[in-house]
Amino acid sequence: MVCMGKRFLWLCLLVMLTTGSGGCAAAAEKNEKTQKIDFTVVKHEDFPEEIKKVIDERKQEEFQMTYQSEEELYILKGYGIQSTGGYSIQVEYVTENTDEIHIKTRLIGPSSREEQKDVISCPYLVVKIENRDKKVIFD
Question: Are 87 and 108 in contact (CB under 8 A)?
Answer without folding.
Answer: yes
